[in-house]
UniProtKB/TrEMBL annotation:
Cross-referenced InterPro entries: CarboxyPept-like_regulatory, Plug_dom, Plug_dom_sf, TonB-dep_rcpt-like
Keywords assigned by UniProt, alphabetized: Signal
Pfam families the record matches: CarbopepD_reg_2, Plug
Protein name: TonB-dependent receptor plug domain-containing protein
PANTHER family: HEMOGLOBIN AND HEMOGLOBIN-HAPTOGLOBIN-BINDING PROTEIN 1-RELATED (PTHR30069:SF29), TONB-DEPENDENT OUTER MEMBRANE RECEPTOR (PTHR30069)
The keyword Oxidoreductase is assigned to this record: no
Domain TonB-dependent receptor plug: 126-234
A single MF term (Gene Ontology): siderophore uptake transmembrane transporter activity
Amino acid sequence: MNKRNLISLVATILMPMFLFGQEAVTEEKVSTSIGGVVSDESDNPIVGANVIVEGTDLGSAADADGYYSIELGAGSHTLTASAIGYESQSSDVSVKEGSAGITNFVLSVSAVEMSALEVLASRADERTPVAYTTVDKEEMEFRLGSQDVPMALNMTPSVYATQQGGGAGDARINVRGFNQRNVAVMINGVPQNDMENGWVYWSNWDGVADAAQSIQMQRGLSAVNLATPSIGGTMNIITDPASYEKGGKVKQEVGDGSFLKTTVNYNSGMIGDKLALSGTIVRKTGDGV
């Protein structure tokens, strides 16, 4: 093979490769995207609003001007815009290959609904590693009569309660050998022990048993969240909630020494489907025998 034929053969082989490389270099990459502005009903941009393409991992967050941009493939897609405090909004879009579509969102303000709040006053349940006994309202009425609240717990383990002087408010309670100074007493989660010596004056709470829904005695170091003197135990008293139904009751108890206890309870029922009130008044009289 002479030199001229060799050059022609090499040129024939390299020419297609050169043309292909030339085409690859000159070919321009065309992108397909969707963008727009997320705003509220007052035409204010919603900074940080999320816009996602449903069924994919594609999405974007709105910038300081509420603008977002997402690169995606051609075809039909569903975009969803959302932000905290606003109702989510979806829009179906169709994007052509190599085009830049525009879809704006106007979100409406939405109130964030929170779950109901329930006050348990640091109560224990079967999952709490604490020894406890709960006395409900029916059992209190059966055991207590007209005595002070601690007497309702006299039949529970490791608890000793006494009326001492016998007058209203003279009750004392010991838990696991500790006196009242080392027993935390709470009413609806509010500590009632004296700040200086930890004592509880039941004369200040004469009649609270008539308004109590239940009492729980936690023995030993308990599950309370407050720094109360609970080395002996904790007594949690929960009062009756307001009743949805209107009504009331009157109860009288008599005893030695001209003792007379009158209890009046009244429930307003629902007022305008928004408020319900309940009240209990207790009066004790006697010769102090």
